[in-house]
């Protein structure tokens, strides 16, 4: 390997920030922002500052499988400039086919060097699903199947981040009939902690926030039972939606660009999946808070939920989900997604309700309240597992 | 003695691409391009609601996000005879121009520049000289000595850390790098600046489509509504933000991207004689000004050029099922019914996944047999190159005054004849020329949108054919778009309100596909022939030419099938 790969002098992140002209005040401002971002108390600021002052850059490899690269693209959209800079410099992104300068054999050498040199220390980021059909021939990189690669690289990783719906749940290529037998990471790798950062793609600041949490506290953020960081995925889009009062008041868009659409009424009748979707779109929004799908007038597609592609057609309101009776929707979804515990919770899910049967104009077999309450809050996973 | 070299993965692209090349006496004498990943989206689309297709198709690619959604809604609207309101057309044009400009800048700096720019050499540059050099060609306010000096310090610290991250183990110091240190420093500075900028311009997508990547589209128009007087729709605030972002995009292209392109090109003029390839060019045309159904109103003209003859533009009809576009699978891991060597028009095609390559892990593919997940499209039997160069050449040959002026101006600065365009360098230059045009057109479209709203026409959606009950029992349509990487088309067949058949033939399928039944090479394979290779172990020259096409492999690989059970059976799904 060239000498450039082998310097023993590794400055801490804070030293690097200093050398890049970041002064103490800006540094503490960043820590305060990050602290607020992660929902910490004021004492968390010092904790973050201490962590950043002493940590070396964490080696990270970003594996690409069956993907459209929207997760990589979203990551690049991370909006607070100093955070974007820090992330590029706090991490050592040693392998990513999307951005790295080296190609072919030289790229493979870097990957092999990283997973050997930093065995047990590096974090594996996975974008894309892993097809197991045709003995792995549906996704091959450098002559190796995705199945072999993910196993090889996961073996020495201290933790795995599954970026986006592909790596978390198989996404579009796993939609019926799943022609290549596309699988999420958790179906292949069973013995490592996996953080599931859902969405198609995940929101940029959610991706950045998860990495910062890992780097700062040296442990995973607390996850829910589906392995998603609670800090970003514990609320339904419906519950953080600024159009929610319209739902509660029974004010709905009846067709796109009608008078109600222009007033920003609720998109429930246009098929909005906000009531069954856990994500931070309503609170963080997208592209540095510019907007989010509902704000721009389109119903939520539910892109951060497993199997959302088969939960269509998208423009049919939720209560008509084919194959699910209205009253069984909550139970069925609960069983599929969350297991028996969730079913019990579903019965107790506290939801604001008003009588809106009349205002919605329900058709036979529909029940907006049931749809609204159809997903309980997922139960917590284990508290902050150390890594 | 010839030597077979393999580049896999080709990095700094979208998707999974493998290049095998035969090198003899320091030059490539033959090459094979293989797409090594498949997802099967067309199988998945079958039987679904055509109004949902855009969302599935958009996930074909997150880099050129939006373009597949656009082609998809157009295909459905074409099939059903829907004409979208003028404001929706303008919003689509703005989103499309925004996408192409953003994508071209990201391609130039983050995917292509490191083929020409030596990052390590930038450490030796004199920041004052770099500043003077930059200011000679651009009035970009940041080009000061302090700016370059700070950047150089940051870079030095980074390199000294020993953790080179994305820059590790690359080709620094390779003799094919020709730029002076100062220019390397300028380019690295702008690499970082472009990274910051690219996330701003896409806010235009968030405003009209809710998010980026993967903003929302809608069959029949766009999902956003205008409301200037009450909170709830897009109003003067958001429009003002769009105006600002479009202005900043134009500034970035005019003052950073384009000057850098023209500053770097003279050091690599030998690449104006390398990588020409097919020299056949295809463009479907785009940016409608009088509805998608009227190609005569497109800003990008539709047409084909054969054998670099700029005196003749051949008409192109994506609907021509008898003598038009066909796809072949003679070197692709699929099977057709009937005799080998058949090509099928997308409306009438059939496809089944059938892997017949070596078991993994493998060191070489058997390129005499099938060797790619990409099918091989042909137009009237010709292999065609698509992309910004094709658009610029068709526009130039067709006498489009704006395109002609923009191309001539760039050639004037380089003091080079139009023939230099048929090359690796020409492809890269055409992208920059196009970005300039589209950044300006974007502002023009915005101005038209404001005029329209002022005149009281704020309609963004037509609900006339929204209800499937209004549809004919059978319909077929084609939606085309000029994606950042070139001519893109989706063909759809609708039956009883559901997708009966759906197929995409995308830019990188044209360019990156394997040979056809007659052994004709597609663009990548043809363009690599004659490329010099200084050191067979270091594929720098190969990736220069491949990157000049801006590969997008997730887009390129696709399939559809004609029987419900066949696909399941062949691949043994549950």
Quick overview:
The complex is a heterodimer of chains A (about 375) and B (about 575). Chain A has about 375 residues and is α/β, with parallel strands linked by helices.
Describe the overall structure.
The complex is a heterodimer of chains A (387) and B (574). With 387 residues, chain A is an alpha/beta fold. Chain A folds into 3 domains: 8-56, no CATH class; 57-233, Rossmann fold (3-Layer(aba) Sandwich); 237-372, Irregular (Cytochrome-c3 Hydrogenase, Chain A, domain 2), CATH 4.10.480. Helices cover 37% and strands 9% of the residues of chain A. Chain A has 17 helices and 9 strands. Chain A has helices at residues 13-19, 24-37, 43-54, 70-76, 81-90, 104-117, 146-155, 164-169, 204-217, 230-233, 237-240, 244-249, 259-262, 326-338, 340-348, 357-360, 368-372, and strands at 58-64, 91-96, 123-127, 130-131, 140-141, 144-145, 159-163, 182-183, 194-197. In chain A, the strands form 3 sheets. Chain A has a 5-stranded parallel beta sheet, sandwiched between helices. Chain A is globular, with a radius of gyration of 22 Å. Residues 1-10 and 320-356 of chain A have low confidence and may be disordered. Chain B has 574 residues and is α+β, with helices and mostly antiparallel strands. Chain B has one domain: Cytochrome-c3 Hydrogenase, chain B. In chain B, 39% of the residues lie in helices and 12% in strands. Chain B contains 17 helices and 12 strands. In chain B, the strands form 5 sheets. In chain B, strands 1-2-3 form a 3-stranded antiparallel beta sheet. In chain B, helix 4 (86-112) runs parallel beside helix 9. Chain B is globular. The termini of chain B are far apart. Residues 559-574 of chain B have low confidence and may be disordered. The interface between A and B is large, with 111 and 110 residues.
